[in-house]
Amino acid sequence: MILKKTALLVLVSIMLSVIEMTVDPAFILGRVSLVFSGSLMFLLSLLFVRRLWKYTN
Fold it and tell me: Roughly what angle, to the nearest 10 degrees, separates helices 28-56 and 2-23?
């Protein structure tokens, strides 16, 4: 359940950053949102690898 909520948060954050960067590339909130979504995607990938590692061992 937490994984689905995190994936939804990443998707919304990426869409928000794309919209903000399209409207005004110098807008700082778009860049912050992009960094936030990138770090969430990295965390999500680590959680996926950890669960995969747990199921194989």
Answer: 150
